[in-house]
Amino acid sequence: MKLKQKELRDRTVEFYGHGIKHLQDIEIKGRLIVIEGPDASGRSTQIEKITTRLEANGHAVLNTGLKRSELVSKGILEAKQHYDLGRKTLALFYAADFADQFEYKIIPALQAGYIVLADRYIYTLIARNVVRGLDRRWCHNLYGFAIKPDLVFYLEVEPSVLIHRVFQKNLSLDHYESGADIGLSNDMYESFLIYQNQIRREFQLMQKRYGLIPVNGNRTIAEINSDLQNRIDQYLNKVMR
Amino acid sequence: MEGKLIVVEGIDGSGKSTQIHLLEKWLNYKGISVFKSEWNSSEMVKEITSKGKKKGLLTPTTFSLLHATDFADRYERNILPLLRAGYFVLADRYVFTAFVRDIVRGCNPDWVRKVYDFAIKPDLVFYFKVPVDIAVDRILVGRPKLKYYEAGMDLNLSNDPYESYRIFQGRIIDQYDSMAVPESFTVIDGTLSIEEQQRTVRKMIMPLLPHMISSRK
């Protein structure tokens, strides 16, 4: 006798805040897995590997990330080049971009039974805003329309290790990812370290609140991958029937 | 805060823009530094919203967030710094427009209010109240076509844009009315003559004028 193919169980969605009215009672089959972490922490490499593996196991996978919405992603890039945007303005712009992808990509894919692998989610956006001086409660409320992911991994890399990976990747430090817009230090190297430490502290605060799973990102790609893959497999085994 | 913030609210066709225009002229005449800011007018955001609007792509959440972005840009760039510098800032629509429209579109009221909670409370909010039929007739004179979001077509109220517009505006009026007392709106009867409305507006503004100017004829 052939065993029936296992599949993901249906479930309702849970929002961080008030949610979105017309999505309140939907049932989804898919699962949302998020990989968070600073630039050069190895997120995209890991996502590639996990995607390959999940697809090999017969799951449909959708990759998403920030600044990829049809609606405003180009707008954000243009606006950053031409205008000196206020912090709240930029925060709201990013939220619009996220909301667009959330409703048009993430939710439909989850309804269709996909495993959505998100390269960053609301946490990076919140951390960036808070570090730039915006009210923490305001930032959390802003993303109250987002659903709680099933798994959120946070790749934690020592800023002093991270900076070398950034140099290996780009040979220079990114303006925003170094917090150069906040005037932390005239020295870009030092600014990067201060900024990344502040972001890390914000993630540590969110760890408990949001159930983020910290993953030691100082290790090799293969080590991190087997760690992540094990945790994902364990989770999926639990929710398949 | 050195400056004063005066807001006009009301549905399209309520006559509020005419009134704020006359108010601006009067204040200018009195030698007061005035800055006027209109809803949805940030150059930076406009291009992007209009793109999404044309495609009919906006959900209530993205619609709300893009208007909040527009507002934040004008607020951080102009409204707040000018208020601090002592200007009379005249806002043709303010956060209340977001509240009424977003709530009618189904956004959570508490969420919307918190998104805008950085905005300073105005010194005066004039609410121009007109029956929906009068406002709709004013708007539709010589205007053959309504835009998709303007008519509230995204709410699936009716397949006929004009009918949809009427229902949509009616719901917005209900929201405004429910806000009038808690938000201390100064309600102006928008069916009165332009001159009469302007007299009431100016009378209300008088106490906010700098002493030297208000005592001058």
Describe the structure.
The complex is a heterodimer of chains A (241) and B (217). Chain A is an alpha/beta fold and 241 residues long. Chain A has a single domain, classed as P-loop containing nucleotide triphosphate hydrolases (Rossmann fold). Chain A is built from eight helices and seven strands, in the order E-E-E-H-E-H-H-E-H-H-E-H-H-E-H. With 217 residues, chain B is of the alpha/beta class. Chain B has one domain: P-loop containing nucleotide triphosphate hydrolases (Rossmann fold, 3-Layer(aba) Sandwich). Chain B is built from nine helices and five strands, in the order βαβααβααβααβαα. The mean pLDDT of chain B is 92. Chains A and B meet through helix 2, helix 3 and helix 5 of A and helix 2, helix 3 and helix 5 of B.
List the helices and strands and how they pair.
The complex is a heterodimer of chains A (241) and B (217).
Chain A: E1 11-12, E2 27-28, E3 31-36, H1 43-56, E4 61-65, H2 73-82, H3 87-111, E5 115-119, H4 122-131, H5 136-142, E6 151-156, H6 159-170, H7 188-210, E7 213-216, H8 221-239
Parallel strand pairs in A: 3-5, 3-6, 4-5, 6-7
Antiparallel strand pairs in A: 1-2
Chain B: E1 4-9, H1 16-29, E2 34-38, H2 43-55, H3 60-84, E3 88-92, H4 95-104, H5 109-115, E4 124-129, H6 132-140, H7 161-180, E5 186-189, H8 194-205, H9 211-214
Parallel strand pairs in B: 1-3, 1-4, 2-3, 4-5
Helix pairs in contact in B: 1-8, 2-3, 4-7
